[in-house]
Specification:
The complex is a heterodimer of chains A (242) and B (305). Helices cover 15% and strands 36% of the residues of chain A. Chain A is α/β, with parallel strands linked by helices and 242 residues long. In chain A, the strands form 3 sheets. In chain A, strands 10-9-8-7-11-12-15 form a 7-stranded mixed sheet, sandwiched between helices. A 6-stranded antiparallel β-barrel of chain A has the order 1-2-5-4-3-6. The longest helix of chain A has 12 residues. The radius of gyration of chain A is 17 Å and the shape is globular. With 305 residues, chain B is α/β, with parallel strands linked by helices. In chain B, the strands form 4 sheets. Chain B has a 7-stranded parallel sheet with strand order 3-15-14-9-8-7-6, with helices on one face. A 4-stranded antiparallel sheet of chain B has the order 4-5-13-10, with no helix packed on it. In chain B, strands 1-2 form a two-stranded antiparallel ribbon. In chain B, helix 7 packs across helix 9. The radius of gyration of chain B is 18 Å and the shape is globular. The chains are: A alpha/beta (242), B alpha/beta (305). Chains A and B meet through strand 13 of A and strand 4, strand 5 and helix 8 of B.
Chain lengths: 242, 305
């Protein structure tokens, strides 16, 4: 973990209420995809944890949905500096992926899949991605994943873009050696049930500190109590208790 | 050169800064960031006789200048704390640590304290009486002077280490409870624990945290804490540890003027992991600004005249 100041270099709309922010600073503590950063905002007490979408050189990219006071405040920021804790959480382990990993992201669970896909491709893996959204207007990063060299499938719940239905609709015919997933809990549960392989699932929980001190985000697993912020957010399939 | 040393129940602290229980784990998350030996001491995560998972999530809610938590004393149980956590802690901390203890019956408290009494690294026992008494209809021990005194007596009978009673502010008369603990043998009083609070989500129209209510802490509660420390310090002879919303060196001075011998820092650690380090580093300059040479000289100074 590291605390440092980051410069906002970009903050743009991807969809109606999803934004992408790029921050420049000391990224040395970010060691894996699936980790998150924790951002201090003026006049808000708790920091806001946001997953890392990409990290390249001294720039970290985050994609966030505007849902409350914190993200509303972030959406307004065009420049300036932010006090950020970096290198939080365990992140995804790419060594278990096999040759043909399948990455499944739903909604704002899509962003962490981007850095993961990048890592897996750099390791020479053949990466397939399923991105799930509610409707066409909410779709983002489809082309970005294609540009990385991933085999990309998109589902929308209302069928307005890609395959109609949930992410699991595209899982049946997929050929894969391992599953990585991030998204709302009902989606994770469905992926867990549909997946034919082992895998890693990233969980979300309301946090106090984000670095393991307050026990605010604990969950029960097969291997004991875990803090989503510290021993998570990524859990292995075999240890998950629903 | 200013002097920041204070004495807490016979043990000298290099400075009065103590991270509060539940906001500092067992120290090693913070030891990754800075040398925690610079602290006066710290109060480790509250532990109980048996392992506890605690309350369901969500356990945390944002508030204006503060937060609510309902973690519910998650801990691995005193045996595991002693066999697993304390050996790890002793590798990064070479001072005496404060062991925070909770219980759900008088016997629970005594059991846990007796175990911790055998640990060299433990300098003080800080006994949290905000928990519900399972044999007393679920009422918190800390809301009844006699129940708090009974816990104090039980703990004192099993340990030679200084016993500090940590009091809840959610009471009608905190002075009566502090006095009852002192009379029962408490070597010190720490206060205030969190204030009972609640938030409701406007979108879901339901309480934000699963337990509905939880402990409110952070900057917002500082004036209440100062008031209660002032009241208790004027009523008891034993040292008082002040806490509640402390976030900077000025707050430390104010708590000490109110009568605190040492000062715990809680919620601020969660939003600024370097909070205690910053406070300790700022303290000498703030002392100079207010013409304070010896920090211990100002303890309770606000009571004079």
């Amino acid at each position: 973990m590291k605390q440092s100041l980051f410069q906002i270099t970009e903050n743009v709309k991807l969809t109606e209420n999803v934004m992408r922010m790029r921050l420049k600073g000391d990224t040395s503590a970010i060691t894996a995809s699936g980790q998150f950063i924790n951002i201090k905002l003026d006049n808000l007490f708790l920091r806001r944890p946001i997953s890392v979408c990409d990290c390249e050189g001294d720039t970290v990219t985050i994609i966030y949905k505007v849902v409350g006071k914190g993200t509303e405040q972030m959406a307004e920021m065009q420049s300036g500096t932010l006090d950020v804790l970096t290198g939080l959480g365990n992140g995804y382990n790419t060594s278990l992926s096999g040759e043909k990993p399948l990455l499944i992201g739903g909604g704002v669970g899509v962003p962490p899949m981007y850095l993961l896909a990048k890592k897996l491709i750099s390791e020479g893996k053949q990466v397939s991605v399923i991105l799930g959204f509610n409707t066409k207007n909410e779709v983002f990063y489809e082309e970005e994943f294609r540009a990385l060299g991933c085999n990309v499938g998109v589902t929308t719940a209302d069928g307005s873009h890609g395959t109609k239905g949930f992410v699991t609709a595209l899982m049946q015919d997929a050929d894969y050696t391992y599953t990585y997933s991030c998204g709302p809990e009902p989606m994770l549960k469905a992926v867990f049930a549909a997946s034919k392989t082992s895998g890693q699932y990233s969980f979300e929980e309301r946090m106090g500190c984000g670095f393991g001190a307050c026990m605010g985000c604990s969950c029960k697993t097969v291997t004991g109590y875990k803090r989503i912020c510290k021993e998570g957010p990524v859990l292995e399939k075999e240890e998950i208790l629903w | 050169m200013v002097n920041t040393k204070v004495e807490l129940c016979g043990i000298t602290l290099d400075n009065p800064i103590i991270p509060a229980s539940g906001t500092f784990g067992f120290g090693y998350e913070f030891a990754e960031l800075y040398d925690i030996n610079m602290l006066g001491t710290f109060s480790f995560k509250g532990n109980t006789q048996d392992a506890r998972f605690g309350k369901p999530t969500p356990r945390i809610a944002e508030c204006t200048s503060g937060m609510i938590n309902a973690v519910g004393l998650q801990n691995p149980g005193v045996e595991k704390v002693i066999s697993e956590e304390l050996p790890k802690l002793s590798k990064c901390f070479n001072k005496k640590v404060m062991a925070n203890v909770s219980g759900f019956s008088v016997e629970d408290y005594a059991y846990t304290c007796e175990k911790l009494d055998k640990c060299d690294i433990v300098g003080w026992l800080e006994v949290n009486v905000s928990c519900p008494n399972v044999h007393g209809g679920g009422m918190s021990f800390g809301t009844d002077p006699e129940a708090a005194a009974e816990v104090t007596r039980a703990v004192k009978s099993v340990t030679k280490k200084p016993v500090i009673l940590k009091l809840s502010p959610n009471v009608t008369d905190i002075v009566a409870i502090a006095k009852a603990c002192e009379k029962a043998g408490a070597d010190g009083i720490s206060l205030i624990n969190t204030m009972l609070g609640m938030r409701i989500n406007l979108r879901t129209k339901k309480p934000v945290i699963a337990n509905k209510m939880g402990g409110f802490s952070g900057k917002a509660i500082f004036p209440v804490a100062v008031r209660m420390v002032y009241q208790v310090a004027s009523a008891v002879e034993v040292p008082v540890i002040g806490m509640g919303g402390v976030s900077c060196a000025e707050d430390v001075i104010e708590m000490m003027l109110a009568g605190a011998t040492a000062v715990e820092v809680g919620a601020q650690n969660l939003v600024d992991p370097y909070a205690c380090k910053s406070i300790i580093e700022e303290l000498p300059a703030v002392m100079e600004k207010y013409r304070i040479e010896n920090l211990k000289d100002i303890i309770g100074a606000a009571h004079n005249g």
